[in-house]
Amino acid sequence: MEMLDIVSKPSKFLKHFKVDVEGELEDYEDWWFEEGLKISENIDRLGTPHLRMFDRFGNRIDEILYPKEYWDMLYRGYKLGVVADPIESGNLLKFFKIGYITSFFDPGLYCPYTVSLSTAIPIYKYAPEEIREKYLERMLRRDEEVWQGATWMTEAKGGSDLGNTVETLAEFDGKFWILNGEKYFASNVGAQLAVVAARFKGEGKGVRSLGLFLLPRYRENGELNYFIRRIKDKIGTRSVPTGEVELKNSQAYLLGDKNNGIYIILEVLNISRVANAVGSVALAQRAIYEAYIFAKERFAFGRKVLEHPLMKRQFYDRISLIMKAFALAWESAIMLNGVFLEKPPYSNFYHAFRLLAHLAKFWTAEISVQTSKWSMEVNAGMGVLGEYGVERLLREAMILPIWEGTPHRQVLDALEVIVRKDAHKHLYEHLKDYDPEGEILKIGEEIKSLEEEKRETLADIYISQLAERVSNILIKKYFS
Ligand SMILES: Cc1cc2nc3c(=O)[nH]c(=O)nc-3n(C[C@H](O)[C@H](O)[C@H](O)COP(=O)(O)OP(=O)(O)OC[C@H]3O[C@@H](n4cnc5c(N)ncnc54)[C@H](O)[C@@H]3O)c2cc1C
User: Fold this and answer.
1) If you measure from the C-alpha of residue 155 to the centroid of ligand 1, how many angstroms do you get, rounded to a whole number?
2) 242 CB near ligand 1 (under 6 Å)
3) Does residue 198 line the site of ligand 1, with CB under 6 A?
4) Which class does domain 151-258 fall in?
């Protein structure tokens, strides 16, 4: 039963992988056990923050209303430097450690941190100097005055195929880029800044005519610069408001070179895909923990449920699985740390990172869903009742495969980076000391050798196989 102890706290699991989480991060975890979890459960049960659209005089204000405790919960991460530390130190790992601990309790709350960092990084890398100076400092505050970010690409006609479905248009007026259009899934809506995908007016469809724009909440004259049409009613991640946003002659700034828009958009998505992978494992760990605390007390057929051989084996299998999933997620975080300041054209190591990030996003989210479902089965009747929180884990988990790109997109993009950039070769270079049989190369070459239609047809099967093999290889890296 010793092995089960590592699932009882996020910090124990992280330490098992020799990730340093001493001091303030352990205090943060303690706060979650003592106070945070109750706040988070209330927000989940009572509903997501809501929208006040007009003031009493009929003026549009689009204010999101939160319970006070929400802010206590949210600011804790900013105070720890969840966004400030990575930008100031040039090292992203604290962001992922905070994300792991946060997601164990509330994966939805990791979203505001993730989209804020995914806004701060392109400002840091690509904004003109005066814009960077004006906005970045506010995002790096470690108090209640901190400015949050958001990342809005998806429109009503679809989020996977941005080249065809983004209809928001951008036109330069000599001072600002003026945006007109709508965003259909806009998480952390109400944020002071957002990065938004829009199409350069008159340039036709396709990914090449897309750019990434920085959109402040307020116009230069203090009026609203984007409008919130409504807040979505979601099955999970209810602690982050996801809205529909209208852009009406909104003032924005172009980030980076006009010809690199799609690459910069993908850079933003890659940060949140890795965060999603880290958060997915944390949620799966929590699900195992919730199964454990029930099974170690509940009796059936004269023994504690946990002591039945079938159950014992399943617990060990689940823990082995999340260890492999963590190895995949953490390695993608480490690799992102090495490439997040790169700009196009990218290094081979960046392509290796992209492949690993797709594997991690795809595979860990699936494990999170399956493990939450299994935890519900272990808790059985008690698992489906709203009052005990286990059903929440499954609801939260169901979002993880979908946002930041669906499983279909992840596996198809993984194929693309193998075929077009030989990413499997670069990933093999990175991990060859732990892959003596060259398994990464073999699977990658097999994928390349397939005729295109067949390759797409079998994408999920091949990419699952590759993710599984790479995770085994990484376990050797972390524990040999
Ligand atoms: C809670 C929540 C919050 C979100 N927040 C944000 C946000 O803040 N910002 C943002 O930009 N987006 C956000 N999204 C949107 C999310 O990124 C999209 O839902 C996702 O990218 C998929 O887009 P879609 O829902 O439009 O599905 P579609 O793109 O319409 O896809 C429909 C189906 O077709 C499949 N499909 C597409 N192409 C292929 C293919 N080539 N082969 C096989 N199958 C394919 C998809 O996988 C999916 O199963 C959020 C979503 C959720 C659920």
Assistant:
1) 9
2) yes
3) no
4) mainly beta
